[in-house]
Write the structure tokens for this entry.
Amino acid sequence: MKKLLFIALIALPMSVFAQKYALVDMEYILKNVPAYERANEQLNQISKKWESEVEALLTEVETMYKKYQSESVFLSDAQKQKTEEAIMAKEKEASDLKKKYFGSEGELFKKRQSLMAPIQDEIYNAVRDISDQKGYQLVLDRASGGSIIYASPKIDISDEVLQKLGYSN
């Protein structure tokens, strides 16, 4: 039994060392893909447009509230109630619009998915093809791998990925 355990302990590290690993730096790759930069710019423009729409509604709410405060002494209770309800309705409209555009499943999220998913898929396919060709069992992203303390530049295949995508660097 001890012999079997000893053989297993010796064979296990050998199989681990036999595996091939590689790294990619997704931030570096994405910075060198023009389609990614164009998509980001498009998202920024859309986001600014939608932010201005929400801000316009919030400014309207603020104007309504200031007007209400200055005129409230002259209004009857029914008029006050009606004005307060109008202000709250406008606040809700602004809140709903903000959620529609910027919520977790909002329009910006959907637009980001539609613009970025094809780029990410293309990069993933390039990484997969290179891994298949060179026999890598594991490819880690250096940019998101906070636990990578040191990695040899020799195993970084980011430039190969860019070449596979048609972007020489």
Remarks:
- The chain has a mean pLDDT of 87.
- The first strand starts at residue 21 and ends at 24.
